[in-house]
Amino acid sequence: DAPWRALLLDAARTLETYGHAKNTICKPDGSMCLVGALMLGAPGKYRQQEAGALDIGHVRNKAQQAVARHLRLADAYGALVIWNNAHERTQDEVTAALRAAAYSDFEVTA
């Protein structure tokens, strides 16, 4: 299975454990934003699990692209941050988006 899919599921579990934050990667209480959960949720776990010397940054980029695609957002970073930080955004919505992207039937190539 693709490491980016596993990272999305780990990020959802991380948010459920530590909480969802807005307007920051990570708060002192441990809560974090969607991108923060992808960055901090499982450090080192996905290194070199795909062909070649692929690092966590590459896997994380694929994961972000998958969530953005699932949400039909314009890009995998800026629009994703804006979506996460929306006043009405809830932790349940964020974790649901992470899981839906993980279980999607599309592939992410970049």
Report what the structure shows.
The protein has 110 residues and is mostly helical. 54% of the residues lie in helices and 0% in strands. It has helices spanning 3-18, 34-40, 56-71, 78-85, 91-102. Helix 1 (3-18) packs across helix 2. The protein is globular and about 35 Å long. The model is unreliable at 47-53 (pLDDT under 50).
Oligomer: single chain
The succession of helices and strands, N to C, reads HHHHH
What is the helical fraction, as a range of percent? 40-55%
The helix/strand class is mainly alpha
Radius of gyration: 13 Å
Question: Main beta sheet: strand number and arrangement?
Answer: none
The counted number of beta strands is 0
**Low-confidence spans:** 47-53
Q: What average pLDDT do the residues reach?
A: 86
Q: So what's the overall shape? A: globular
Number of helices: 5
* End-to-end C-alpha gap: 16 Å
- Beta-strand portion reads under 5%
Lay out the secondary structure.
Blueprint: H1 3-18, H2 34-40, H3 56-71, H4 78-85, H5 91-102
Helix pairs in contact: 1-2, 1-3, 1-5, 3-5
In short:
With 110 residues, this protein is mainly alpha-helical.
Keywords:
110 residues; mainly alpha; 5 helices; 54% helix
